[in-house]
Amino acid sequence: MIRIVGAGFAGVEAAWACVSRGVGVSLYEMRPTKSSPAHTTDYFAELVCSNSLKSKLPTSPAGQLKSEMAALGSLILRLAEEHAVPGGEALCVDRNAFGSAVTATLTDHPLVDVKREEVTPAMVEAWLAAGDKVILASGPLTSPALSDWLAKRTGRDHLYFYDAVSPTVDASTLDMSIVFAESRYGKGEGNDYLNCPFNKENYEAFVEALVSAERAPFHAFEAGGVRGEVTLDEDYKLPGEEKLLEQIKYFAGCTPIEAIAEKGARSLAFGNFKPMGLTNPATGRRPWAALQLRPENREKTLYSLVACQTRLKFGEQKRIFRMVPGLENAEFVRYGVIHRNTYIEAPRVLSPWLEMRETPGLFIAGQLTGVEGYVESAAMGILAGLSCLASLQNQELPLPPRETAYGALLAHLQDDTPREFAPMNINWGILPDPEPVPRDKSVKRAMKIAAAQAGLAEWVSAHPFSLGEKGQG
After folding, report:
1. Domain boundaries for CATH 3.50.50.60 within the chain
2. Could you read off the pLDDT of 41-62 as tens digits, one per residue?
3. At CA 385, angle to CA 18 and CA 382, rounded to 5?
4. For 65, 401, 428, 444, which has the most beta carbons within 10 A of its beta carbon?
């Protein structure tokens, strides 16, 4: 018996990897019996942060990872393409249409036994004792009881860090006499992104307000649906939280905007709000800075504020983001939130097949492994599912070559270099350099992708499971 805990990106892909190859699973999802502080629907694979699944370009690290996932029969990517919305070079999806499709696909599958209930440590221990295979894919908002149990299994006191989410606005409330449509350097369709242009004066006023704004406490979560009212969820309040504040970790892509602004008056203009590649049609010149908006659905009725993840109090968000040119009367359908993430110290406790070294039969998938991002989490879900299948059939799954995107992520998870382990997304830096290393960066990157593609072909040919019609579902 294969039991999968959590129906997020990783759990969905783990389940699909099994059932598309003819092996049934029990898929456990606690919503709606019990919700989390960041979820607002009962859909599987709900997008609680950005609706972007990163670059579609096959010559990018994210594009290569998608190619490898597609070769393994990814369900997430197939449904994302079916429910895509404009996003320039990025694969962006309509949240509700995508979530609904994922949920229906698995719920209606004859080999998937969906159980809407919370999984406890006692249940997991009983399953393992009975010889079942368990894939823990409960994600960054793993319930406190299960998270504490996993922490003890890995010899840690806690498994927490924090992630942040950008606000979303109603498109009809934007001032289109100020906001203009343009993708940087003309990439994409040209109107995939909207831009709010700052001049020097209103940019400086915005930064000053941002730096001095009141933050929400670290234990404040979104629990009020689209209204985003701040309430305290005592079930998710962290033990010894005050002691953890010094250890809070943010990834560069999810650093709260106010934390970036605190680094210097021009930090946003040279970072999140860089105006390079944009021309304001009202002036014919590049703006001083620009906040970009990305469509959240196919109809373009909702836009998210790109790279504006924040933990400001909701009243402060409304006041300060309405200082942005073109957002003076914007209506917020979702405010930015900060939520807890969870991961293990993979190099110490996880095998290359994503199985706990000291707990045979327990596989870890998704962000719990120490990867960052929707696509990376889904990728680890597929690998966990295939590893579990191989274990069930007393086989050993061939590991992906180091030069592939999968191999690069696994190398990070297995890298026991003395350091403070932190999650990683797919990027040029973790793909191995060719030898000899060319001086031209573009040539080097092209060689990395070529090596990854060759490695993928080699891996697929050595795979013990069908990757043809059956594997593609």
Report:
1. 2-159+343-461
2. 889 999 877 899 999 999 999 9
3. 105
4. 65
